[in-house]
Specification:
about 90 residues, alpha+beta, Alpha-Beta Plaits, four-stranded antiparallel beta sheet, 4 strands
């Protein structure tokens, strides 16, 4: 299944807001998967210097990732398909 990165600009975000967003993302992905549209939140990285997050999802389509983020009410600036590479893969 393809992987996607969701980029977000979150100036002034607090750790509590990030945790709440993560709980909503996890819940919405589980809900969509239960409805037959598999979406999995893999992980997120917060970049304090730029107040951005890069959140990685696995899903059949970009539109599924977009829907999961909209359901979770988490703003985003961009969603792009990515190619995963790990040390074990090379």
């Amino acid at each position: 299944m393809p992987f996607f990165v969701v980029k977000r600009d979150l100036p002034g975000v607090t750790p509590e807001v990030l945790q709440s967003a993560g709980i909503r993302a996890k819940s919405c992905c589980a809900e969509m998967t239960g409805e037959g549209q598999p979406v999995r939140w893999v992980r997120s990285f917060y970049l304090p210097e730029t107040a951005q997050t890069h959140c990685y999802f696995e899903a059949a389509s970009k539109s599924a990732v977009e829907e999961a983020n909209q359901r979770a009410r988490i703003p985003f600036t961009q969603i792009m398909e990515v190619v995963e590479m790990t040390p074990e893969m090379v």
